[in-house]
Design brief:
VC0802-like, about 450 residues, about 40% helix, 2 domains, alpha/beta
Length: about 450
């Protein structure tokens, strides 16, 4: 039994929904289906989830929200009419939204999550009803009926382990189940959403819960590219990666699959495949717990680069002799509720790399505290750092990967602010100035995948 999840662009309009149902109805193993809210139909379009957030803003600021509500209903109206369905369902949708606004008007966090959940919830109801109309036994199942119990952190829910027993029972349904992604229910019966893009997480939870043979994640590309296609033209699709590789690549910007979705799958080693709704016969990218690295055609699986990091550099002569030095620095950051990413260090120096949005507005206070409480010799802060990540299971057996990468970067006059290789030896991380991000990705891609055509 497979779990199949369809992202926002796959269910953005009636044409896409027809493609989705063709895919589902063509394979008896596709019994459990997770859908997102209608996403963008064209580049400048707005996702339904964002429309719902705008509606929330109007309601909470006591502004007239009739127009926003109408815009949301129109997204579904377009689908319902094009699918020639009874438009009574539209009245139900409108009444549902009005009821939520009424119930939660004095509880902003609850209202936001409840409204955000409508995007997927309405879409799942429409898709289930339409497939039934086509003659396929299909049932809409709310996350509550499915047994998705989550922690009570609005916008940031996490699954409760106790859910899995209940979810396993979904195997007993005869019909195809359409479950809305992106939210679950707290033990107090409140709607709580996962982080943005969280329908992937719902799919992963259900795949683990029913012990699926495969979790299919359908999107609008034919898999995961070896490098960002807006930087490298026509990069190769990665045929397979391990969970570990995927985690490292998504850390530095690969957004095709939500990184929190790996966690439930990892535990029971459920394979994932990223596929294209518009080209379902393309093989896609498999994400697996292990892969055979004895005969690899490429040592590197992919290269990614994420901008927006800040570094605090500290120098102190004989730092290595001072017991508790690092702890003192870190406790200042902890006091300020700043999470840190990396701490490369030398004998007498230490750098702390932080995502810039973590420290924004707090820089002065943090530096003053370090100066006052730790007595350092030199203290500087640098902005505009990018993290370049080169990932590949083959790296721990190959010799010369680092030299290939550093020479490709040096040929392009890119200065390396930091080099880091974790003990797992499946990734190498370089700190570079943001302005070189694209050149660096292109240089590494050429070095490992397109050497023959390399211009660099
Ligand atoms: N609709 C939600 C979002 O836009 C969740 C998802 O699509 O996965 O973030």
């Amino acid at each position: 039994m497979k779990v199949s999840k369809f992202g926002g662009s796959s269910v953005a309009n009636s044409e896409q929904i027809k493609k989705v149902l063709n895919i589902i109805n063509s394979d008896d193993e596709r019994k459990i289906v997770v859908v997102s809210a209608p996403g963008k139909r064209f580049k400048e379009d707005t996702k339904t989830t964002d429309l719902l957030i705008r509606l929330y803003d109007k309601v909470i600021n006591k502004l007239d929200y009739a127009h926003k509500l109408q815009q949301i209903i129109e997204r579904y109206e377009e689908i319902v009419h094009a699918l020639e369905m009874d438009d009574k369902i539209l009245d139900n949708l409108r009444n549902d939204i009005l009821r939520l606004i009424d119930v939660y008007q004095n509880k902003p966090e609850r209202l936001l999550d409840a409204l955000k959940s409508c995007g997927e919830d309405f879409n799942a109801q429409i898709i289930a009803q339409y497939n039934t109309q086509l003659g396929y036994p299909t049932r809409y199942l709310s996350p509550k009926e499915a047994g998705i119990l989550v922690t009570d952190e609005p916008g940031n829910a996490m699954i409760l382990e106790s859910s899995y027993e209940q979810i396993y029972k979904l195997r007993d349904y005869e019909e195809t189940l359409i479950v809305p992604g992106f939210f679950g229910y707290s033990e107090n019966d409140d709607i709580v959403t996962f982080p943005r893009g969280g329908s992937d997480i719902t799919g992963a939870i259900l795949a683990r819960g029913i012990k699926a043979s495969l979790y299919e994640n359908f999107t609008d590309v034919s898999g995961i590219f070896r490098a960002n296609p807006t930087v490298v033209s026509h990069p190769e699709v990665i045929p397979e990666v391990t969970y570990r590789e995927m985690r490292e690549l998504s850390y530095a910007g690969f957004g095709v699959f939500h990184d929190e979705a790996l966690e439930p799958l990892y535990k029971d080693r459920i394979p994932v495949v990223i596929k294209n709704t518009n080209a379902p016969d393309d093989k896609g990218t498999f994400i697996l717990s292990e892969r055979d690295t004895s005969n690899l055609s490429h040592i590197i699986s992919g290269v990614s680069c994420d901008k927006g990091f800040t570094t605090i550099n500290i120098k102190k002569y004989l730092m290595n002799r001072e017991v508790g030095f690092t702890r003192k620095v870190l406790s200042i950051l902890e006091e300020e509720n700043i999470s840190i990413e990396h701490i490369p260090s030398g004998i007498d120096n230490l750098s702390i790399i932080i995502r810039s949005n973590q420290i924004e507005g707090k820089e002065k206070r943090v530096l003053n505290k370090i100066r006052e409480q730790i007595k350092v010799d030199e203290l500087t802060i640098e902005y505009d750092l990018a993290i370049l990540m080169i990932v590949g299971e083959g790296m721990n057996k190959a010799i010369g990967t680092a030299s290939g990468a550093t020479s490709a970067l040096s040929r392009n006059n890119i200065n390396l602010n930091m080099i880091n290789q974790g003990s797992s030896e499946i990734s190498m991380m370089f700190g570079i100035n943001e302005q070189y991000s694209d050149i660096a990705v292109q240089a590494i891609y050429n070095e490992y995948f397109a050497k023959e055509t390399a211009q660099l």
